[in-house]
Amino acid sequence: MTPTAGLTVCPGDCDGDGQVAVFEIVRMVNVLLGALPVDACTAGDLCGDGRITIDEVILAVRALLQGCPFPVNPDRCGP
Predict the structure, then answer these.
(1) Model's pTM, two decimal places?
(2) CA dist., res. 57 & res. 26, Å (int)
């Protein structure tokens, strides 16, 4: 999945400080695995569907490496 221009966010910025840190990626993976509720990182739930998926984790890793804000295609959550 390649993000495109449309919505700029900081995917995975669990604590809202405008950047993504490794501990936030770990937190998202724990939500993905069911060890934490999605409320532990609502910034990781880009689709707003109450879960964190692997594609959302990948976008957060990209934001970690490339910085925020990060462009995300708002249509990527569709069928």
Answers:
(1) 0.83
(2) 9
